[in-house]
Records
---
Amino acid sequence: MLLQSGLSVLALVAPVSAVLFWLTIPTGTWQPVAAAQGLLLAICAFAYLSYTRTIIRVDAEGISERGFLGRVVSFSTAEVGSVVLLELYQSGALDTQPQLFVTGTDGRLLVRMRGQYYSRGAMETVVDQLAVPVVRVPEPMTLQDLNRARPELLYWFERRFTGHTE
């Protein structure tokens, strides 16, 4: 995913930057273009560091997640109710990706592991480490199916675009 994102940014930025430099160097007004490129490079470096620092840790005390922006959330083993493991169809494709949802004893979503970021092996490690009931959904689901069956497992923006009303 990191490689795809980097290539996408490069494919957009390189031609635009080349044209802007080509137009501004002869007039001596290239400094704002260079500053914008420096800013974009800093944003990309921040995104890369944030991506590489994202982690989910499971131990005897419970589960904790450091998210993309560095926010750390932790839940004790007493707060964890169950794990739901399923295959979710990618939008507009026949391919599926695994999704793991760690839910609390009250049914709310605590941690989500998406197949775009985590391997099946990493998900199975979480399942093995948490001594809670595991629900393995046998058939792949679409986002809309999951929204109808268990909307509490989805992020707010996924519920909004799949027709679920609260």
---
Amino acid sequence: MSTPEDAPRPRGPFPIEPIGWVRSPYQRRFGTPQQAAAAGSEAEAILELDGSRIPTSALTDLEGIERIWILSWLHRGGGWGPMVRTPRSPGAPRGLFATRSPDRPNPIGLSAVTLIRIEDRNLHIRGVDLIDGTPVLDVKPYVPYADAFPHSKAGWIDAIPYDAPQIARRPARVTAR
């Protein structure tokens, strides 16, 4: 392994383009579920893959996979700060990387959704937490033996009851001290 000083450090920009877009019932950030699949949301959406970039053969073998990961670009994000207030912990500012705040240096979203069915290049999904028009960067299968670590510790999040009410407001960024 190289030392940090001599390790190669690729610099951006990186060539990332959407492979599709989400058609969702949610039009604004406010009111869009957070961690929708974990909260039991039944909201349905369609992930429309770009026919000029993605051939239908890319969806071969996806049938029968119950859950998928969607990596997206959170295009309606605001600026970001190193500390944020979250809906589940409104009183205490938290370090950005210890949260799932959508306001990030690179606003990449990660959503675990249920795959309902596939029609041509349209993936019908349930448990969506994405705004209508969200660009999709990639789709990957959820693989339980590799993706689930039920006994992992979640730090400050473990201290909040799972069913604790969330504050229905936009998380506020706070400045570093």
---
Amino acid sequence: MALLLRDVTIGFTGRRADVRVEGRRLVAVEPPGLPADGAEVVDGNGGTLLPGLVDAHAHLLQWASSRQRVSLAGATSAAHAAELIAAAGPKPGELLQGAGFHAALWPDRPHRTLLDHVLPDQPVALFSNDLHTLWLSSAAMRMMNVDHPTGVFIEDECMALTAALPSPSTDITDRWVLAATEAAAARGITTIADYEYTDTIADWRRRGTPATRIRCVIAKFLLDETIERGLRTGAPAGDLLTVGPLKIFMDGSLNTRTAYCHDHYPDGTYHGELLEPLDQLLPVLRKAVDNGIGLALHAIGDRANTLALDAFDHLGVGGRIEHAQLLDPADVPRFAALGVVAGVQPAHQPDDRDAADRHWAGRTDRAYAFGSLHRAGATLEFGSDAPVATLDPWEAISAAVTRTDDDRPGWHPEQSLPLAVAVAASTGGRGTSVAAGDPADLVLAGRDLTGLPPSELRDLPIQATVLDGRLTHRA
């Protein structure tokens, strides 16, 4: 079935056109007036037509699951978080789950006894907003057959326990995940890189057809199996599926205070956690590279980013650094020089500004340094890290442009990006324009973005999303 996108504005050019799609390609971009000739017509009314948007970093099962959990985003203390989860419970015989808490600014610390007090004998699992902390009640620890003095697990222990928690049947969670891709398509997304810590390829082959393309990222524990299966980054893995890069954690996170930094945190001599010493990491990375598997290194603290860039330099290959939240100024030009993509999540910046001001005091001029990276020639690709932030590219674009999401002035506005640059960082390298012959992965925004007030970006209406030549969303 052909499509005719009538009276659209092409990117940021200001040019109005009709765009015809046949099969998987744009076949015509002409002045308004093209005949329908049997095509399905979508009236653009001057809205902006862009290449389909890409979320370059999300955790789709966790995002889909978080939509079912109790929100703790408004918790102002550990005690308050316990009160919020208590108000939602109890659920006898079930695991009660909450998500989205930010502990970095709390006056108290999470502890199992807080949960035990408000919900005796109720298994409770609470996930931090950055997914690097899992807080369990005593009953939940008994359910999981683990013991811990506080019930608060971070980094590797957190990841392992998160994967082992009881969950609904795969039939149910698969429906949740497919519905999440439909919600993503409704915001203009045509591709998502799934960074879930599972066998993403097997999961997606089981689930059926998503509403977006999926890049199936490889967890470290599956590297050898991936090599044995003959899979290489960029290769097809199924309908709308491709093999993604290998994900490796260099350090932790800001809100857990485990991001690995050159300078210590305010409470002493602690610099965060290096999760993988470079001499132990390099043989793993070399094995991946030698077998055609690309690299995506999680690095948040400036020292972790230095070491990640050192690894790429040593290997003589490019790749990705995911997050790149705090950078040594000397490392900024190394991204472009080494061919390393900065996979960043701009919506984290307004969420984390207060935690950064406290824990990275005196260094925040080089935190979430999107402007510096862009000016140095680095390739920026935006993601959400959902469920850490909402799986909505316009949240990221708005944060990159305005550096705020409330009534406060932009935080370090010198690190903001022009709108066209922010949009280009959300299209996976396709820029902001379209032309005949392009792949038919497209998004039609309901407004002309030229001159659009930044305050309207977050709620930008999406008229249509086209994936591989077919509509996946129509307003």
